[in-house]
Amino acid sequence: MPKAGFGRLAWLWLSVLILVIDQASKYYFENTLSLYQQIIVFPDYFSWTLAYNTGAAFSFLADSSGWQRWLFALIAVVVSAVLVVWLKRLGRDETWLAVALALVLGGALGNLYDRIALGHVIDFIFVHWRNEYRFPAFNVADSAITVGAIMLALDMFKSKKTGEPVND
Predict the structure, then answer these.
(1) Taking CA 140 as the corner, what is the angle to CA 139 and CA 145, rounded to the nearest 5 degrees?
(2) Which residues are catalytic?
(3) What is the pTM of this model?
(4) Residue (of 21, 38, 27) closest to 143 by Cα position
């Protein structure tokens, strides 16, 4: 029976880095800005704006009575556990996938901390197109989750483990 390894758990350093940067940036902006205060970085395109999100992505269920906090926290805990197990089971040649999973895990843990400790997620990055289009405010954790998810999607298009290209 082969000895069980640690898979790609070494990539957990990236998850910890994302978590630290996320929490440090949230701490900075929460202590620098008042709620909804806007500091324009690039006029008509980008601002720092402190906002709180009690819901999920794009403020989904933010208007609910509070039960969503625990639902989203539970989902984050389950997803995080699955990601750690997945990382442990990866092979040496699956670095791209390991980075993607580590990014998603770090982001999930950053927002999980906010949700449990504060009851809301702190957002501060505000991208907009003049006053015509406004993307919801987000944070470093959200960015890591998004990049990791894109990497996971791209991984599906890579060649199969047998080395044959995917032609569906």
Answers:
(1) 100
(2) 123, 142
(3) 0.84
(4) 21
